[in-house]
Design goal:
The protein has 481 residues and is an alpha+beta fold. The chain has 20 helices and 15 strands. The strands form three sheets. It has an eight-stranded mixed sheet. It has a five-stranded antiparallel sheet with strand order 1-3-2-6-7.
Length: 481
């Protein structure tokens, strides 16, 4: 399948840089090829040391998006509601497996469980992966439509693409606020919790056990000690202000509806704006399934490593379809270790093919493109309006967040839930990828800080400690000499 990669140039690809390892996308990548509606022709993922470049063809995105636009909002709302059954199935599976004592089950049973929950993720993703091509194409269509109006394009675009729903992070925080309110009401404190408060804390830890996940790489335990620390902070804060922030989406929805009513917009613009809300909500709920799967993968890999004596990180460089052969010794550990140093994974209708970097280096370089060190000005899409100046800090992995200081400009391929503590320190946020309904856009609006997404090259052209001006009103990032 490498021939499918070699016939395309760098500009043909949409590239997302993500933290993750191959096993953790075993239930995701094949779903893009075998979409419920219409699949991608080929997917390429270049892995190296717990990070990877996820490469999809722009022409595939546009073809699939056209299939989406053939149906109206009611159709996709029904599809979304139907998909929620798949999510519920995954949630039930997660609760069952998370309670299981893995130390007491056999190596074979570990592998059977992994195939089962990864299979559920694949089933879920075969429907929900339709979100990606729609959101990419909708962004371009909406901008073109607004450019034909007399409106301020940046402002109109930002308002029309406001999601208008609570994210899972909003929901998690609001439940903690509820616990803090309960503590204040019944006089509980951290050292002396009432039964009602204790029950709500247990419920929170069970429901959001997966929330401390790093993309498609690994998960940390969400401990009662960490939750207690969060509650201490909440008890010292203004809970009404916390509620205002986490229900800001309601105000955004009202403002969006008023904007549509007060302006003469084409049917196409209104349709895209409404569909964007549906697909952005779908995409957010899809993340929950991904985080649950990453959490389970982390647990199961650790126990599989103990049984086999193979390092957990080496095991993560096998696809789930290969794991039986790895355990049987039919795929050598040395092969997995070589993949970890650099490997190209190509997914297509024919299946999966994996190439060590030294065999396909020219193809990888051609696909990923050159560096952009000499670029002085970057352009992207304004996701949250405003201006800010600060020092750049590149954040890819969770460990990179330690670099962030108050007032820095956070630059990332794409922000994810685990980046929120660093985002709270940022004067502005700039990303390579994503549209105005992506994670960075949603969080920056909540925090009311400037945000520019979709620059494509921010992490390739900027470096730590560069000083930049972020003008989100114009969608421009400038280096300051």
């Amino acid at each position: 399948m490498i021939s499918k990669i070699r016939k395309h140039k760098a500009s043909d690809w949409y590239i997302e840089h993500i933290v993750g390892r191959p096993l953790f996308i075993s239930g995701i990548a094949p779903a893009f090829i075998n979409l419920k509606y219409k699949g991608y022709s080929v997917i390429a993922a270049f892995f190296r040391n717990s990070e990877f470049d996820w490469c999809t063809l722009i022409e595939d995105q546009e073809k699939i998006a056209e299939e989406v636009f053939k149906h109206d909002e009611d159709h996709w709302k029904k599809e979304f509601e139907e998909w929620k059954k798949d999510k519920k199935e995954m949630e039930d599976m997660f609760r069952k497996l998370n309670k299981k004592d893995l130390s007491k089950i056999s190596e074979q049973k570990l592998l059977e469980d992994m195939k089962e929950y990864i299979g559920l993720q694949l089933k879920s993703r075969s429907g929900s992966n339709i979100c990606d091509p729609f959101l990419f194409a909708a962004e371009r269509k909406l901008l073109k439509g607004l450019e034909k109006t007399d409106l301020d394009v940046g402002k109109a675009y930002e308002i029309l693409t406001r999601p208008g729903f609570p994210t899972f992070l909003n929901i998690a925080r609001m439940h903690l606020v509820k616990v803090a309110q309960l503590m204040k009401a019944d006089g509980s404190d951290i050292g002396n919790l009432s039964e009602d408060v204790s029950e709500e804390i247990r419920k929170h830890l069970d429901t959001f056990a997966w929330i401390r996940v790093e993309s498609f790489n690994k998960a940390e335990e969400y401990t009662s000690e960490e939750l207690t620390g969060e509650l201490k902070k909440l008890l010292r804060s203004d809970l009404n202000e916390e509620i205002r922030r986490d229900t800001a989406w309601m105000h955004d929805l009202v403002e969006k509806e008023r904007f549509i009513e007060e302006n003469e917009l084409s049917d196409e613009i209104v349709r895209i704006a409404n569909l964007s809300s549906v697909f952005a909500h779908w995409q957010d709920m899809r993340k929950e399934v991904s985080l649950m799967t990453t959490y389970l993968n982390t647990r199961y890999l650790a126990h599989l490593s103990k049984r086999t004596g193979i390092d957990e990180d080496d095991l993560a460089y096998a696809d789930i379809s290969e794991m039986k052969k790895v355990i049987a010794g039919e795929i050598a550990v040395e092969v997995l270790q070589k993949r970890k140093k650099g490997s190209l994974w190509v997914y297509g209708k024919e299946g999966l093919e994996v190439y060590p970097e030294d065999e396909v280096k020219d193809s990888v370089d051609d696909m990923l493109g050159a560096s952009h060190d000499d670029v002085e000005e970057l352009k992207g899409v304004a996701a949250s309006l405003g201006k800010a100046t600060g020092e750049v800090k590149i954040v890819v992995k969770k460990a990179d967040m330690q670099k962030m200081k108050q007032g820095d400009v956070l630059v990332s391929p794409m922000t994810r839930p685990e980046h929120v503590p660093a985002m709270k320190k940022a004067a502005a946020i700039v990303t390579d990828e994503g549209g105005v309904t992506c994670h960075a856009a949603v969080i920056s609006r909540e925090m009311k800080i400037p945000c520019i997404v979709g620059t494509r090259i921010a992490t390739k052209s900027l470096k730590d400690r560069d000083k930049v001006e972020v003008d989100a009103d114009k969608g421009i990032v400038r280096r300051i000499r």
